[in-house]
User: Fold this.
Amino acid sequence: MPRSSHTQGEVIVVPSTIPITPPPDGGTQAYLQILGSLLAMGSAWGTISTWGVCQTYYTSTLLPQYPQSTISWIGSLQVTLIFLIGIFSGRLADAGYYYPLTFGGFILQVIGLMMTSISRTFWQLLLSQGLCFGLGIGLAFPPVATLLSTYFEKKRALALSIAASGTGVTGLVFPSVIRELLPTAGFGWAMRTVAFLVLACNLGAALLLRWRLPPRTTGPWIDYSAFKDRTYVFGVSGMFFVFWSLYFAFFYVGVFARTEIGLSYTSSIDLLLVMIGIGIPSRIIPGYLADRYTGPMNLQLPFIAYTGVMLLCWIAVHDATGLYIFSALYGISGAGIQGLFPAMLSGLAPDVRFRGTRMGMGFFVVSFAVFSGPPIAGALISKRDGNFLYAQIWAGLSMFVGFALLLTGRISRTGLVLKARI
Assistant:
């Protein structure tokens, strides 16, 4: 069985007799994987970040006849497929199909955005922006996250966090592009411009990323031993409730700004950009702290508790100044949770060969949360005739349920030892 510690140059021999060299934890090739992953994750999640802009445009201009809860299914489907496909793409990557998965995913992302640019009805947008683009990210993202985790051991959380920081950069650029081009070039060219940017990022990622491990061609698609690991079970269950409400603010802050505060369309997009931009350091610094001091699960706990508090504090926001402050503070915690999640899942896999499978299983469970969460929030808003109170209470309580489950998982492995790393 693999040993938990090793030195550079040492060889770990797995039961299948295939030698696997330890993660290099540095060097030119490993650092190039961070850059390639940054481009791949940035193009994918940066485009997801444009959904707040798109939803505001759809509800006010393109599809005003549809309620917010219906339109939000498009954005929910995007994010859902990222995680839902993970249980398959993660295992297939372990089996040696990394390159067909990622390259196919990269192509589908561009096709989905190009088709979005010519879509004008709800169903056209659901199929192009929701299904096609979401499927493209779902095929590529889990294998890329798995690949990067196999190059780093001691610096794994930091490496994944740096790669995730690309999301913050593209999350500022892509929505800004749409905001600036919508009134001048129109919706079609705004989306096509984003598609060309995604194409450029994906081409760079394809040239840089290299799979390191030999194929694991045998074994189940699901690691059933994970169900006997209480830390993994409680940890993933907790993250279900966290992600159930995490994207509520990202998706709806623009709508809240226009309907509840009375801000202009441009100002409502500025709020989303503040939320995304302020989160860039939160995607890097927590990774460093997790590697150096705490471990990713330990650091997730305060981020989740803080996010739950912020969602409940949102209830007291009634003016533009308060909303800008909320957006900035929520961006810090929301980015931290997303940046630490892959590192946490990877750290809960006891065997490097099963990281893709364990991460895919975790993504699969979370997919049902991100699929249903935003529409539930939209339905609760409609229940109050546009008022956000019920949705804000639901989101905050969901976050605290996730915190309790994650804390239970942590205690099941470490007991009540405060300084134990996990």
